[in-house]
Amino acid sequence: MARLQRVSIYSSILILIYLLVLFEALPIPFIDASVAQEILPVIPWWLLVSFGSYSLWSLGWGVFTFRDCPEAYHELLQEINEAKNDLRSRAVTVD
Amino acid sequence: MNPFASPVSLNMQGQYNTPNTHKYSVILPTYNERKNLPIIIWLLAKVLEEHQLAWEIIIVDDASPDGTQEVAIELARAYGEDKILLKPRAGKLGLGTAYIHGLDFCTGDFVIIMDADFSHHPKFIPQFIRLQQAHNLDIVTGTRYRSTSTPYLSETQPGGVHGWDLKRKLVSRGANFLAATVLNPGVSDLTGSFRLYRLPVLRHIITLTQSRGYVFQMEMMVRARALGYTVGEVPITFVDRIFGESKLGADEVVGYAKGVWQLFKSV
């Protein structure tokens, strides 16, 4: 089963349960009905905002911790020179 | 098959004081790499000989007009016809088919794929091999985004990139975030193409992949994870475009998003 189908099935089930609870077709145990009715309509927006802020944090942190490696560049240039000299002595055309 | 009875092992006995009896094939697809090819071969040969590994390099050249094949023949003469194999093709046929073509001539039991333009440095190959042997992994991939390897290996240095400005880094992180959220691949660098594969694993995955370009690299990794193969990561330093500027256009971004969506639908 492809990922798309798996994700669609899980999200359909969750959305169905959410809608049933929202329209009071299904009761939630241990929570007051009035409290539930205040919280439930807000849940989708809460999910959206949470995902948005997580994404922003993730991108920002990722860019902040992105390492530069100038030493690798300089080392590579030196090795290229070394290689060229060695290869000329082995009868390989470089340049 | 008993690894101690393989031809490589029997030939190596008495020559090398090493427990590693595997042979490592490097597949290098080239197009117009006349200047870079000798140097990358020199670097590869130096690293692999230093670590006393049985190796071979298969150069798959797509009919380069600049004389890449002549240089490859000179290198084969310098290093040995059994070590440097030139397997040319008739035209520019793409990366995936280049690997398939190269795989036909592999005599090793591990395959390393990498770019021939100095963005991937051969010095990381021993670290890949060490990690693979320590945890019996099927695939080891290089990652530019991590500082430590997964699973942990003590001799690794932090990864990084040289030659990218802030915008490029942001695009790269954004693309990776998108792919990670949609596909959950379990690797930090999905578009990287510096990898070590077990030969049968590469053969299996490559018959299943359908996309082209760098989405091809992504698809191989995602399919490998879906099939249950074990993957490890080693941080690498990536020197992008040692001669010139690195460019990323809007078309590529759209193409990338389409590729991720295709993978989402099919794997």
Report on the architecture of this protein.
The complex is a heterodimer of chains A (95) and B (267). Chain A contains 4 helices and no strands. Chain A has 95 residues and is mainly α. Chain A is elongated and about 85 Å long. Chain B starts with 6 loop residues before the first helix and ends with a helix. Chain B is built from 9 helices and 9 strands. In chain B, strand 2, helix 3 and strand 3 form a beta-alpha-beta unit. In chain B, 43% of the residues are buried. In chain B, the strands form 2 sheets. Chain B has a 7-stranded mixed beta sheet with strand order 3-2-1-4-7-5-8. Chain B has a two-stranded parallel ribbon with strand order 6-9. In chain B, helix 8 runs parallel beside helix 9. The model of chain B has no long low-confidence stretch (mean pLDDT 88). Chain B is an alpha/beta fold and 267 residues long. Classes of the chains: A mainly alpha (95), B alpha/beta (267). Chains A and B meet through helix 3 and helix 4 of A and helix 2, helix 3, strand 6, helix 6 and strand 9 of B. Chain A: Pathway: Protein modification; protein glycosylation. Chain A: Stabilizer subunit of the dolichol-phosphate mannose (DPM) synthase complex; tethers catalytic subunit to the ER.
Question: Which chain pair has the greatest contact?
Answer: A-B, 29 and 42 residues
Tally of contiguous helical segments of chain A: 4
Task: Give Rg of chain A in angstroms.
Answer: 29 Å
Largest sheet features of chain A: none
Number of strands of chain A: 0
Structure summary, number of beta strands of chain B: 9
Tally of helical segments of chain B:
9
Cα(first) to Cα(last) distance of chain B is 33 Å
Helix content of chain A: over 70%
Task: Give structural attributes.
heterodimer; A: about 100 residues; mainly alpha; 4 helices; about 0% strand; B: about 270 residues; alpha/beta; seven-stranded mixed beta sheet; two-stranded parallel sheet; 9 helices; about 40% helix; transmembrane (chain A); transferase (chain A)
